[in-house]
Amino acid sequence: MTILDHLSVGVPSVEDAAEFYDGLMATLGAKNLLQNEALAAYGVDAPIFLIMRPYDGKAQTAGNGTHIGFRAQSRDMVDAFHAYALEKGGVCEGEPGPRAAYPNPEVYTAYVRDPFGNKLEVIFNGFSA
């Protein structure tokens, strides 16, 4: 059982951000399940990851020390996610590879920032493995 219903990141424009996230989420087998001017919701069977304009009308900001970890089913998926993000304007925050800090020695992960400053991780053999 998971304790999470969904996660979200703020973006300045849902339409612009969806152009980035539609392809990025496809690298993990997820798709845009719902979109309107306030949000877009991604998942495989049900929405779990949302991109949203801030409801308070203020500028979107990225959290310091905060990131969202997406589960990949293979090292190839990690590599594809990372490559797609960089190709579409993301910034590398950690090349694909193993990380000693994780308890599973078979972990393979990468970090990027989306074009809006949000930090994302993609991980194979992570905590949920």
Q: What would you say about this model in short?
A:
Helix content is 20%, strand content 32%. It is of the alpha/beta class and 129 residues long.
Q: Strand share of the residues?
A: 25-35%
Q: Measure the end-to-end span.
A: 14 Å
Outline the biggest β-sheet: 4 strands, mixed
Q: Might you state the CATH topology name?
A: 2,3-Dihydroxybiphenyl 1,2-Dioxygenase, domain 1
Count of DSSP helices? Answer: 2
Say which CATH homologous superfamily is assigned.
2,3-Dihydroxybiphenyl 1,2-Dioxygenase, domain 1
> How much helicity do the residues have?
10-25%
CATH architecture group name: Roll
Total of domains: 1
Shape: globular
How are the strands of the biggest sheet laid out side by side? 1-4-3-2
CATH class descriptor name: Alpha Beta
Pfam families: Glyoxalase
Domain VOC: 3-125
InterPro entries: Glyas_Bleomycin-R_OHBP_Dase, Glyas_Fos-R_dOase_dom, VOC_core
Protein name: VOC domain-containing protein
Q: Can you give a write-up of this model?
A:
The protein has one domain (about 5-55, about 65-125): 2,3-Dihydroxybiphenyl 1,2-Dioxygenase, domain 1 (Roll). Helix content is about 20%, strand content about 30%. It is an alpha/beta fold. The chain has 2 helices and 8 strands; from the N terminus they run E-H-E-E-E-E-H-E-E-E. The protein has helices at about 15-25, 75-85; strands at about 5-10, 30-35, 40-45, 50, 70, 90-95, 110-115, 120-125. The protein is globular.
SSE layout and pairings?
Layout: E1 7-10, H1 14-26, E2 31-35, E3 39-43, E4 49-52, E5 68-71, H2 75-87, E6 91-97, E7 108-113, E8 119-124
Parallel strand pairs: 1-4, 5-8
Antiparallel strand pairs: 2-3, 3-4, 6-7, 7-8
